[in-house]
Amino acid sequence: MLDRGWERDRPLAVCPNSGLVTYGDLERESGRVASTLLSLGLSPGDRVSVQVEKSIANLWLYLGVLRAGLVYHPLNTAYSLEEMRYFLENAGPTVLVCDPAKYTAYHDVCEILGVSHLLTMDAAGEGSFRELCASATPISGVVERLNDDVAVLLYSSGTTGRPKGIMLSHANLRSNAEVLVEAWQFSPDDVLLHALPVYHVHGLFVGVHCVLLSGASMQWLPSFDVNRVRRCLLDATVMMGVPTYYTRLLAEPTFGPADCANMRLFISGSAPLLEETFVAFAARTGHTILERYGMSETGMNCSNPLVGERRAGTVGFPLAGVEVRICDEQHNVKAAGEVGELEIKGPNVFKGYWRMPEKTAQDFSEDGWFVTGDQAFIDLEGYVSIVGRSKDMIITGGLNVYPKEVELILNEMDELQESAVFGVPHPDFGEAVVAALVVIPEAEADLSVIKSRLEEQLAKFKIPKLMRVVPSLPRNAMGKVQKNQLREEWGSVF
Fold first, then answer.
1. At the top level of CATH, which class does the domain 191-389 belong to?
2. How large is the greatest C-alpha to C-alpha distance in the chain, in angstroms?
3. 59, 12 contact by CB (below 8 A)
4. pLDDT over threshold 50, residue 159
């Protein structure tokens, strides 16, 4: 993505702290990053773990890691020390770049786990890593890697509670970006409003890669602030967001067509877009949101059309080069309109799970299709609709939460006999994490204490927004907890 030959003075991004940066700045600063990492003795394939706030320097770091032939390992800034311990032990990075405020907490962990270099970068891009890069001579070009070599290592929790490392290759990233640029007709005239975080697929790959491959530019915002977003929309042509972004815009009584005068496209993903949001946004602005569907393991798989009918409740058609099918548990293909397991095949599908060959084999069919864990159907016109998740995942504000990970911690607490963690509808986040708790006989449960213990071990977005003590959990004849019944009973709590 650095070989497109865009003019060095072409605008790349407007940033609150850095002002205007250009494609020339990108080439120079990512070259400094690559040079710095190579000078530390890193070799192709070594992992660089990154847990920092969003900044333009963070973007230079990502691209510099790729230019040096290394593997980029982004981490949610909300992860706790205990969560980070697992990620660092499993990924085995040579370098960790973290916020300066976390340096002391991470120092001993890095020494124990053999992380050779612990460096810092704050929200403005300053820190020990910036100081190292300042005097570096930028490399020219890139360290050569094969298309199938791993470029990025992402972690996505599993239903067992053990996070899995997802290996994405250079070919995975490039092929998916090229398809999206064509599907959404990105051009050098586009300006993307970028308010997404850059530690997962949506913000880092879908947003940034579409811009870089098309020579477009960005309004680069550190986070979603509704007032700032409204101001920046006036200078943008495309916005990518999670459904929460759109509900928050609609919550502004004066938000309307004037805010969108220069916009050509609004895109939504990372969580299901409610039909009521889809309809309300079109009525208020005259713009129909384009919903698409992807996963950490695959990048983007499906998209509603740029030209043609964008249907509420669907994720559109398979992207060019991507095949989808709906199957039963034996991988037999089901008829149009029938609900089943969604399976994917294409150049976008990941290489496998890091150091988990058995899990990789389990999630692929014998004929090479990736089993997504999503329940879906394809109608007679080819529109794909996601109707549920067979892997019990909660998507809150565009972030994935696996109930088992939270339940394992709750169930270890002395006063609790068992727990059930599940998602319920939430007007702002789409879904909210909630927990039903069963207390052991003669014990007492202080919910504030339980919450504090969870906060010590889990990222904030995984903490239940509501916990209630219940006499028992509903079960079927086989003893399985009936979370569907709990979801129905708790469905209107927010």
1. alpha beta
2. 72
3. no
4. no
Q: What is the CA radius of gyration of the chain?
A: 23
Does the fold of domain 191-389 match that of domain 18-145? Answer: yes
> What average pLDDT does range 267-289 have in this prediction?
94
22 close to 8: Cβ distance less than 8 angstroms = yes
Q: Which helix (H) or strand (E) holds 138?
A: none
In total, the chain counts a number of residues equal to 494
The residue that leads in pLDDT, 71 or 271, is: 71
Inform me whether the pLDDT recorded for 143 exceeds 90: yes
Give 394-489's CATH code, choosing from 3.90.1140.10, 3.30.300.30, 3.40.50.150, 3.90.800.10.
3.30.300.30
3-state secondary structure of 100: helix
Query: Six-digit token pair at 6?
Result: 């865009």
Write the DSSP assignment of 428-441 as a string of letters: TTEEEEEEEEEEPT
Per-residue exposure over 45-58, b if at least 16 CB sit within 10 Å of its own CB, e if not: ebbbbbbbbbbbbb
Class level of CATH domain 18-145: alpha beta
Delimit the domains of the chain by residue range: 18-145, 191-389, 394-489
